[in-house]
Design brief:
The protein is α/β, with parallel strands linked by helices. The protein has one domain. It is built from 5 helices and 3 strands. A 3-stranded parallel β-sheet has the order 1-3-2. Helix 3 packs across helix 5. The radius of gyration is 14 Å and the shape is globular.
């Protein structure tokens, strides 16, 4: 499985590599990004954290573990979608695009683990 996470702001500044499958994983469109300026493959909003969960988490490091558990529970109904992305990651580099400022405390980290676990 080949899954990475990357800030959308960094992704749009670089040349997209062949074999990448880029997925925007934010519920809201990132501020300051013009849709036509970014080349991505899909935006599956059903895989993004609910507004309530997103606001509760607020990117607070001490909540990351509990957030991941709550997020996984929210995604219980999305098993087929998670598995589909996991299967894509076996053929291509799956890039999860997010807008949060902190590269170590964000929902994309949790989603990466959840996707990886969906095949196991």
């Amino acid at each position: 499985m080949n899954i990475t996470i990357e800030r959308i702001y960094d992704f749009r500044k670089r040349k997209r590599h062949p074999g990448e499958y880029a997925v925007l994983v934010d519920r809201l469109w990132p501020r300051g990004v013009v849709k036509e300026s970014i080349e991505f493959d899909e935006w599956p909003k059903q895989l993004t954290p609910s507004n309530e969960l997103r606001k509760w988490f607020n990117h607070e490091p001490e909540k990351l573990e509990q957030f991941t558990l709550k997020y996984r529970k929210e995604l219980d109904e999305q098993g087929d979608e998670l598995k589909r992305l996991a299967e894509i990651s076996e053929k291509k580099k799956l890039v999860l695009l997010y807008a949060a400022k902190d590269p170590k405390v964000n929902h994309a980290i949790a989603l990466k683990k959840i996707i990886a676990d969906s095949l196991g």
